[in-house]
Design a protein that fits this description.
Radius of gyration: 57 Å
Number of strands: 11
Shape: rod-shaped
Largest sheet: 4 strands, antiparallel
CATH topology of the domain at 86-195: Tetrahydropterin Synthase, Chain A
């Protein structure tokens, strides 16, 4: 009987050892998993263009940014970390988030606006801890600043010639306002302006009038230029004609002088010939005129020396005119 009880005690003890060993294995295995989980949570990877910010931890938030790349710190395992973008980015106010502004003449205008900005890399943690979500802050200013600017301009100016001025005004004001939060404005773009129909029609009419005025000025300048060119051409032609007349007259004078000189040589020293220089020269001009094909002389009346006139018909184009002698 005693031997049987001893055997039972030994068997029950071995079972207890087996149960204890299983519990130890489970405990060690669980501890290993916890350690691995803690180690994994102690690693953080920050993408390029972003900064890691510890929002909460056993020691509180941290104003020191976690730079790009892989980092290991056991405190990360028990910390709340946000990865925040700081490089150049665009915030669009389009479609459902279009900005509605009121002009100086009390007209509602819808604007699609884009803000291009970046955050100072060494101020990302300070901004997040002090101001919270930067997107909410940026949206507040990207709505309020255009409304304030638009109140200084009429709708026709905003949608017409003044669009660039208004855009620059918004850019300047946003740059000054967001600089207080370490946000650097790179650009502000007005992508679209939706005006009331009456204002659109007014702007189109103004542009058409300006185009008509430009066309009228161009036509006027063209007409004036052509008139000046025509007048200059006529003046040049008149000068040319006058010069030609002067040159022709000078040539005629030289020719007359030469003919008179030749006649003087021929008849001047011959005492047997009655010489009248003027009469001889006029006779020479008369004969030259008759031989000129452009002469308008049709009939010439001569004398044969006996008193009977001789009529020469020079009107025939072939030069075969008839001679007629008048009755005495």
């Amino acid at each position: 009987m005693a031997s049987i009880n001893l055997k039972k005690i030994i068997m029950s003890g071995s079972r207890g050892n087996e149960r204890l060993s299983g519990a130890k294995i489970f405990a060690w295995f669980s501890l290993l998993i916890i350690i691995l989980a803690v180690l994994a949570a102690s690693f953080i990877n920050v993408p390029a263009g972003y900064k890691g910010v510890i929002i909460s931890s056993p020691t509180g938030p941290s104003s020191t940014e976690i730079d790009e790349g892989w980092h290991f710190n056991p405190i990360y395992a028990v910390s709340d970390i946000e990865v925040i973008r700081y490089n150049v980015q665009t915030r669009d106010m389009t479609s459902g988030s279009t900005v509605t502004v009121r002009s100086a003449d009390n007209l509602n205008i819808k604007m699609d606006i884009s803000l291009v900005f970046h955050i100072s890399p060494d101020k990302v943690a300070d901004n997040r801890i002090q101001y919270g979500d930067m997107t909410i802050l940026i949206d507040r200013y990207i709505r309020n600043v255009p409304r304030d600017v638009a109140s200084h301009y009429n709708a026709t100016y905003i949608g017409g010639d003044g669009r660039g001025v208004v855009e620059q005004h918004i850019r300047t004001n946003l740059t000054e306002a967001l600089a207080n939060y370490n946000i650097i404005v790179d650009d502000v773009l007005i992508r679209a302006i939706d005006l009331p129909d009456t204002v659109d029609q007014s702007i189109e009419a103004k542009k058409q009038a300006e185009q008509d005025m430009i066309a009228a000025e161009y036509n006027y300048e063209t007409t004036l230029t052509n008139a000046r060119a025509s007048a200059d051409a006529q003046i040049i032609a008149a000068h040319g004609e006058a010069n030609a007349t002067v040159i022709h007259a000078q040539g005629q004078a030289l020719a007359i002088a030469e003919v008179q000189a030749q006649l003087a040589k021929t008849y001047g020293n011959n005492s047997s010939i009655s010489y009248d220089p003027v009469q001889v020269y006029l006779t020479w001009l008369y004969i030259r005129a008759l031989s000129d094909p452009n002469s308008n002389v049709q009939y010439v009346i001569l004398t044969d020396g006996s008193g009977n006139p001789i009529i020469l018909d020079l009107g025939a184009a072939t030069g075969s005119g008839t001679n007629q002698t008048a009755a005495p």
